[in-house]
Amino acid sequence: MRKTLPVIFSPDFQYHRTSPQHPEKPERLDVIMKRLKEGLLGEIIKIIEPSPAPLEWVKEVHDSNYLLRFEEACLRGRSFICGKENEICYDTYEIAFIAAGAVLKAVDLVEKGEKFIFCPVRPPGHHAERYTALGFCFLNNVAIGARYWQKNYGRRILIIDWDAHHGNGIQNIFYEDDEVFYVSIHENPRFSFPGTGLPEEKGRGRGEGYNLNIPLSLDSGDVQFIEAFLEKIEPVVKEFKPEGLIIAAGFDAHQDDDMAYLNVTTAGFAEASEIVRQWSEEFDFPVISVLEGGYNLDILPVCVAVHLKAMLDLEAEDPEDF
Ligand SMILES: [Zn+2]
Q1: Which of the four pLDDT bands, split at 50, 70 and 90, describes residue 316?
Q2: pLDDT (0 to 100) of residue 40
Q3: Least enclosed by CB within 10 Å: which of 66, 102, 205, 259?
Q4: How is 217-245 classified by DSSP, letter by letter?
């Protein structure tokens, strides 16, 4: 059977404009989409345009007053919200809803039988909190998608966040929840933004034991990254028995990405993806991969390509591809 890869993407994502020196810039998606259209992936991608997330689902995760402040800041022409790093433009509020809507679309499609879907979205989401924007993130795309999957379809959801930074927003939103399990691999938070993500943060109340932080020491590479999957995450997959998996897929842990001191290589991301694909087959759950960070414009598209090829079990056309 011929494989297809649904990619939920809107050209409107590029209308979230940031200043040229800002790392989270429209070119990130330009280079990814260009790469996806080339080679083997180009023959199988099926681009699907998302609709904006309905306000009712965004409010499941974000506070109404924060949303009002965010919308007003954009429409009034402010250049940032909740800290200078969170640059906005007139269109950012609207585009952020389309990014969240991409994950909702992916959830609907996996519920109709798709096994793997990629959402190359921006702005990213995993640092966004209920009451605030943080770390270039405004709406928590992954959390909104997980909440929708949980509430609308009654599923148990595992989130694996392999961005180099801890996804504080996702952790906090599901901290007291035992139906959405959050796992994050990230650089040692004692040195790294946003400073959360210690192993002792394990969840609270009903959610105790449903939050797993795996900090890696600075300069960790593929060995430590893969060890985290095999030794720490595999037992979670076996015990929690997720009915759906969302990957918060940041690629800033790559050795050539300046945003962190981790040294994961493209082969490391390929191997991690391969492990996740095997779990999804063995335990029979669909996977939605949602772009988070990754800022080296030469490396990011290669990381995405090897990730997708491994998730789809495609042979690389050429070893040089890695
Ligand atoms: Zn990051």
Answers
A1: low
A2: 83
A3: 205
A4: -TT-BHHHHHHIIIIIIHHHHHHH--SEE
Residue 319 identity (one-letter amino acid): P
Question: Residue 178's closest CA among 103, 129, 132, 236?
Answer: 236
- Expressed in angstroms and rounded, the spacing between residue 50 Cα and the centre of ligand 1 is 24
CA of 56 to the centre of ligand 1 (A): 28
Which residues are identified as catalytic? Answer: 127
If pLDDT is split at 50, 70 and 90, which confidence band does 321 have? Answer: low
- Give the β-pairing of 45-48 and 5-8: parallel
User: At the topology level of CATH, where does 5-321 sit?
Assistant: Arginase; Chain A (3.40.800)
Residue 134 above 50 pLDDT? yes
Burial of 117 (0-12, 13-18, 19+ CB in 10 A): buried
Reference 261, options 167, 170, 322, 189; nearest CA is 189
Q: Say how many Å lie between the CA of residue 43 and the centre of ligand 1.
A: 30
CA dist 39 and 16 (Å) reads 28
